[in-house]
Amino acid sequence: MIPQNFKDIISNTENANLFQIIAMIIFIILFLGLVVYVMNKPKKYYEKEENTPLSEDN
Fold this sequence. Notes:
Number of strands: 0
Oligomer: single chain
Number of helices: 3
Distance between the termini: 58 Å
Largest sheet: none
Radius of gyration: 21 Å
Shape: elongated
Order of helices and strands: HHH
């Protein structure tokens, strides 16, 4: 049988649960890293973007 998509390839392996756990851990680490990165920026960094919708310049 030729696998039709990635789900077929992963579901036919013995360690499918392990791959899912590893993928979830990687996603959580990347998401938390992004949140920490954004929260550690100073507020002055975002002032220009904050006022952009209110400016009348075209």
